[in-house]
Specification:
Layout lengths: L7 H14 L5 H8 L3 H8 L7 H11 L3 H6 L14 H17 L6 H16 L8 H24 L10
Helix pairs in contact: 2-3, 6-7, 6-8
Amino acid sequence: MSADKSYLKPIGQRLIALRTQLGFRNREQFAEAFGAPRKTFEKYEQGLTELPTRLMLWLSSEHHVNLDWLLTGEGQMFEGAVASYNEAVIDKIAGVVTTVYDDANVRLPREKIAGEAVALYNDLIGKVDDINDLDEIIAMLPWLQMRLTKRLREAKMDPGTGKREAS
């Protein structure tokens, strides 16, 4: 008699959402970044295999993933992702989003700018010492711009990623 592993399916679904949020184009790229075969990640995402401790430690330390969220679905996806934010920081990041999309000749609806800005804000949380230090944020803006530009370029080459191709 086999043990019930139905609890793994929602974990696999959250792993897929996480992979997408982290900007990995596909399962193979995510698996390669971690150092495991694509087929292994396929089993994790399908909820067929339990996530190993090494993977959870990597996600937590390298990507600031909230393991409570990954395992239970409770809380924020990322550690340090808080409901409050520094409006000046978000404004600067929104400026980067607008510039990158404009440079790529991609029309981004106004209501989508905030979502992109928040995703980049969450990326920054793990990269800076003080998310409210505007000087530190300004120093990181070129990194954010490069990261978003790269993601859009990859999305254009692989339209199945959810980003619309420039029209």
